[in-house]
Amino acid sequence: MPIRQVIELVASEFPSVTQSKLRLLETHGIVCPARCANNGYRAYSLADVERIRYALRQQRDSYLPLAKIGQNLALLDCGEEPVPLEPTARMVVSDGEVAVPKTKRVTVRQIMDYTSVSSETLEKMVVAKLIAPDLSGRFSVRAVAVVRAVMQLEAVGIEPRNLRSAKSAANSAVDLIDKVVGPARAKNTAVSKDRARQDAHDLATILASLIEALTMQGVEEIS
Question: What residue stretches are annotated with the HTH merR-type domain (predicted)?
Answer without folding.
Answer: 1-76
